[in-house]
Write a structure and sequence with these properties.
With 36 residues, the chain is mostly helical. The protein has 1 helix and no strands.
């Protein structure tokens, strides 16, 4: 059970990281569009 929990937490961290990365990328693109 503990191993399963560790796997779940690692998976969650990876997904949050991907989500934040995409959010930051989207924010940068919007900022660049405003400069134009």
């Amino acid at each position: 059970m503990k191993e399963n929990m560790v796997f779940f937490v690692i998976n969650l961290v990876i997904w949050i990281g991907i989500f934040l990365y995409l959010l930051q990328l989207n924010y940068r693109v919007k900022k660049l569009e405003k400069k134009k």
